[in-house]
Amino acid sequence: MIKKIECMAMIMDGNRRWAKEKNLPTFEGHRIGYNKMKEVADWCIKEEIPNLILYAFSIENWQRTEEEVSYLMNLIKQLISKEFSLLQEKGIKVSFIGDLSLVPEDIKKLIKKTENETVRFQKLHLVVAFSYGGRREILNALKEISKVKNKEEIEDLTEEGFSKYLWTNKLRIPDPDLVLRTSGEMRLSNFLPWQSVYSELFFIKTYWPDFKNEEFKKILEEFSLRQRRLGK
After folding, report:
1. Which residue(s) pair with 126 in the sheet?
2. 178 and 221 Cβ atoms separated by less than 8 Å
3. Can 156 be counted among the known catalytic residues?
4. I need a surface site. Which of 124, 147, 171, 179 has the fewest CB within 10 A?
5. Which H or E run includes 55?
6. Does the annotation count 13 as an active-site position?
């Protein structure tokens, strides 16, 4: 029996290496990876996993070539401007977390429009970590707390109270039960550092474009066998 998962988080890694090994343009790896993202959302719906957080674009990714960043921006535009009928059909609510002050104005408007138009859908809450950095999220929370609390209130602040200022908590997203990274890299790369402290971590060698449903199900089965102590 598969143990219930309330929230799953994924680092979608390996698109560029997948393309390079096949002598394909980097952009082709990102295109296939984008389609894989839609597949994985379907898998989560079938497994009745209500929340999925995908690491789509990090703060550090802004340092990539202008051409690659532009292509990735166009993929995001495609998700938030051309996929509404698909999101509606599948009942997927979409939200974004990240430092959106760095994002072009036209994309920010599309993000807001998509969040508003999908807010009533309930089969899956897809959270896209876009222009995201975990340290940036924590720093942002500290700045917000300093604006609304005095010194005494800050001294009495609890971990639970602090977490209310994180981007995920504002969306009422629970901390991930499981964090998966594809491609063989064994680190979280600034992804959900606060929220993942008690998550079960899975690192697989498969590149994101090659990630299959069979492997996804095996990960769920292994998760069910792990004993979670949550620090106790």
Report:
1. 52, 94
2. no
3. no
4. 147
5. strand 51-58
6. yes
Token look-up 């979670």 returns 228
The DSSP code for 129 is E
Virtual CA dihedral for 118, 3, 12, 105, nearest 10 degrees?
20
How far, in Å, CA of 93 to CA of 206, rounded? 28
Q: How many CB atoms lie within 10 A of CB 190?
A: 17
pTM for the full predicted model: 0.94
Segment 44-94, tens digit of pLDDT: 999 999 999 999 999 999 999 999 999 889 888 887 878 888 899 999 999
Amino acid of residue 158: T
Candidates 23, 35, 61, 150; catalytic one: 61
Helix (H) or strand (E) holding 167: helix 167-170
Tokens representing 100 are 């959106």
Side-by-side strand order, sheet with 7-11: 92-97, 124-132, 51-58, 7-11, 178-181, 200-203
The pair of three-digit structure tokens given for residue 183, joined into one six-digit string: 């491609």
